[in-house]
Records
---
Amino acid sequence: MNDRNRHSDRNRPRQGGPGPEGFSDGRLVEVHSHIARDKQEPAQGFSMTPIFVVFLFCAFGFWAGLYLTRNSRGFSASAFDLDAPVASASVGPAVFEPDAAKGEKLYLANCAACHQPTGMGLPGAFPPLANSPWVAGDEKRIIKIILVGMAGEVEIAGAKYNGNMPNVGAALKDAQIAHIATYVRSAWGNAAEPVMDVSVAEVRKALGSRGQYSPKEILEAHPLGK
Amino acid sequence: MSRIDAPLRVPFTLLFGSAALWLTLASVFSLLAKVQLLPSGLGACEWFAHGRLEAAARNAFVYGWAGNALFALNLWLLSQLGRFEIRNGWMAAIGGLFWNLALTWCTVSVIVHGPGAYALLDFPAGAGPVLAVSFALAGLWPVVAYAKRPTGHNFAAQWFVVGASVAFLLAFVLAQVTVVWAPASGVVQAVAHSWYVRSVELLWLGGSALGFGYYFVSKVLARPLHAYYLASVAFWTYFLFAGWTAPAALIGSPVPLWVQSAGVVGCVMMLVPVLLIGLNLLGALSKEGGWSRAWNSTSLRFISLGLTSILASIVLAAWSSDRAVNAALRFTSFSEGQGVLLLYAGVTMCVFGASYAALPRVSGGRWPSAAAIHTHFWASLLGAVGTVVSAFAQVGGRSPDWAFVAAGSSALLLLGHLAFASNAFATLIGGGESPQSHPAHD
């Protein structure tokens, strides 16, 4: 039955739906059940379609895995923005760990010009840090001196040093000062506790904008240990 | 066949009649909502705020029109395919009755008190359980019909319809619990809500419409579907990935990145079932003058149009899930256009097509007016095209000219729906005197 014959009838579906030339419901279900069971339409021969579908599915699956792992920031529940800097996105607030190796680099860059890479200082002007009771004991002493500096005469191991140390720490971050203090307190025969960045932050806040310490002031606040 | 059709009559008439009424009501709401966007507008009356009308139109359209129509048509289709004679049709009728009562309450509440925060879940909390129980009474008949089929034979249309019915109830109950009754944390609510919306759109509505597609393409063309052995892969991949497309709606919002990325992957993976379904259905339509035969069959004309739109909308969803594209289209009217493409040009066209075949069978009458069918087809086709095009055209920003096009399209849709509803009522009621007196062709 060609289209022209159907024309008079179009848009007026007769009772029974699509009409006598349509599949009956029973036949429709049966035919498709057989196709599904035999997998291939009979008389069609070998078909590339199933192979193609398998490859296609593999390709989509491969892409999906790749995309998901690359765009999920380690499936972290606290990663929300693909454009956020990686560190803050994936590990949250960083935990500070005092690191003597970092401290050594910072010491060489900021302190060694006067106190020398050996920590021995220079006679008369720059006091030594090696085996010094000044850097050990209460960590606030070394933090304060790094932050605002110290001017005046000090006597260490019988030798007198008349130095004038500027506020080196004003240009450094809390964590950097903590690294430096940690390094100094563990190098050259010193053996004192590491220093945390929060301690530096506390001291910096407490000092406000005060100027250099004199040796007398700092020893009153933090007497040397034995 | 009338052994199967006759006991369907009462529940089918009730359900489909309600569906036609809701469709008309939804069209009126939608037209008013579109008119509110015109420069002149309707004034500042609170009840006629665009947001309220839009929400009422959405609820009436999805639950009222599509819901009732799918209750009726899914029951009818699986009864045909499974040779199932419904014995407790009154249960479906009772379910439909309470579904419609609850929905009326919801619609009034949305208009009077305003919609809630979550689209498609924005009705009074008490209505949720009523809707769920009503659905269980009226919407699960396809499962019964499938389970009781006399032979071991089965067909893809049955899988899609059964899957769609089960998926809706599951999604609805879970969404009610996590969003309305025992609200989870904010992020989980947003994810659950997007999952619910996609489940309704793609699984319940889209799945049923694809079921109609599998049935009518093969039946009207009287030929087996192309590469039919792939249909089971199509079915499983469709139902597997459809839910995962949901988080793509949340790209850029504060939900964990991997959830967003899973949404993108879901959207792209949907291309697999789209390809296979296209191979099955459009492949069969493209052989031996299938398209022209489809054009000359009222049912298949609507359904082939609907299938093409559904597949196109899923392809568009995959494209717009790309993060760069999404960043440009997010919060624009693009998603509105895509929704109309899926739910109106896609699902509703398939439902129209199925009803043109089902109503005469069940009522024993025939469609009284060919002119009304023509009016309906052209008005809804042009209305759908106008709505979609105006939504896509306003992606760069709202414009008064396109707002007129959208309002005009809504008016066209209302006209088409009036023609359809009056024709459908005449068929349902007019054919009723003596259903046995007409010999069935089948």
---
Amino acid sequence: MSNKNTVMVFIQQDDGIAADVSLELVCKARELADRLGVKVSAILAGDKLEAEAKKVITYGVDEVFLVEDKRLAHYTPMPYTKVVSQIIEKEKPQICLYGATTTGRDLGPRIASQLKVGLTADCTDLQIGDHKIRDKEFTNILYQIRPAFGGNIIATIVSPEKIPQMATVREGVMKLTEPDANYKGKITPVSIKIDDADCMTEIIKRVREEKSVNLKGAQIIVSGGIGVETKENFQLIEELAHVLGGEVGASRAAVDAGLVSKEHQVGQTGTTVRPRLYIACGISGSIQHRAGMADSAKIIAINTDPDAPIFGIAHYGIVGDLNDVIPQFIKAYKAKA
Amino acid sequence: MGLNLVVLVKQVPDTANITGDAMKEDGTVNRAALPAIFNPEDLHALEAALTVKDQYPDTKVNVLTMGPPPAIQVLKESLYRGADFVALISDRRFAAADTLATSYALKCAIEKIGNVDMVFCGRQAIDGDTAQVGPQTAEKLGINQITCVSEINSIDTSAKKVDATRSIEGGFEEVRSGFPVLLTFTDEGYIPRPPSAIKMLAYKNASTDVSSEAFDESYLDGESGVNTNLALWDIEAINADVESCGLSGSPTKVKKIQSVVLTAGDIKMVDNTQGAIAEMVHDLIADHTIG
């Protein structure tokens, strides 16, 4: 198939700044496009964004379609659906990627429905490969890979019969590569008329707080799971994190059980992390959790169950009660450091 | 003034409580081994609708689900909690529908109800976690949407507007939209009320077993008449285009399913003793992992 159409990324902007996940997707799109021998394009919509469009290019975008309008300053579904679907219909990218943020998950499905194309949510990997449907061969299509069914299976989804093939991807899953200030890309302004009828959502108030927990930037993360059992025991997790100068993480089960607040959650539905050291305490290691931390440089697993899946990806494994192990860990560290 | 509300619900396998029998030897999912439950966030959406009805008693709460006959269980649970009308959208030709084909069928069913002010549903279902059916249904209906709603702050029935709070990364937004609009709910607000024992008795005739392949419709218009609140709709009943339903209406295809197999890594087992742990800590300091 000699499809020269681009790999496109929807650039989410919040208060005029491109979201991290969008830049990560640009880097992944660059890799896919190089494999396919095509260009990377991007859609950026908002108000006064030319400088930001230039920044986006440095991550490897060949053409940014820039739509500027005061009414696009903050995301709302109807005008954004109009803008993005019109650009896709005109440019016909073969692939279009969105961040799996509240914005991407609000917009992506509307675009898919309007264009009657497929969309795979929360992919953990994207690859290029071939596929056969009955006697029809499809080459160089997008494999959209995601855990499903409570993480007990990994599904590879394809949608080769409709263009573009679309997927959402969570923040932190794809690697951000260094920008190249000399990368040559162009900005193409696009004029799309937004009128009152498009603006059905009125934003009355918008409150965003700086995250008090910085999991993404942490080099050392000590995480607790349901095996921690009580809030009191969770203080041990916090203590070890404090001693090592790290951040506190948690599995979804621990968050759901109320042991710790949601901003600490690591995994497919939480934050994806890649620290230098990840210590999993009382975490069995469901695939959703592993999807969010498996790329950590070193992993220590502490669990009473020697068959816990977390041991399958750990570099160090300690079978034992975390209430015994952690105090010994702290003692050993204080003695050495 | 009462409102006309539709709540979209789904019966899902309880993926949070997977047992050893959940996976077959060939690596596929054994649905029969998983308990079927009311999708948790959909219960919050239902509670939101019932809360609106508490405030405006003339409100009609219609609950729709698409699924095989046993899915009627979630409709019955909706009736027990106070829904006014429920319909099971069920047809073998819906089988293997992805989110696009599903939202098309739901759109047809919502149009059959007609004159709907607001559509409520859970943000996502725990078996797929896609969060796509809500926005796709809104788009198919050509109406606005507010996703990830934690709270409805106010409803203006004469101006036909709703104010809601939605969760966004690191904060929230308060937004306003006119009717008709679709809202998807998280589990942050609207703690579901328990089923009412009185309603369970009133609807007892609706509890005919429909798990058999041959769908017994006789109970739908039971003697007491209350069961007319429960309908079964097939493709023809909702005027859906067959080609847009089920597998043929689904652009996404599953290429491959792998059950999760852990690759044995290069793991070093450390004894749960002070000496062994100290040695590990020493190694970690030596290679600058910690320090």
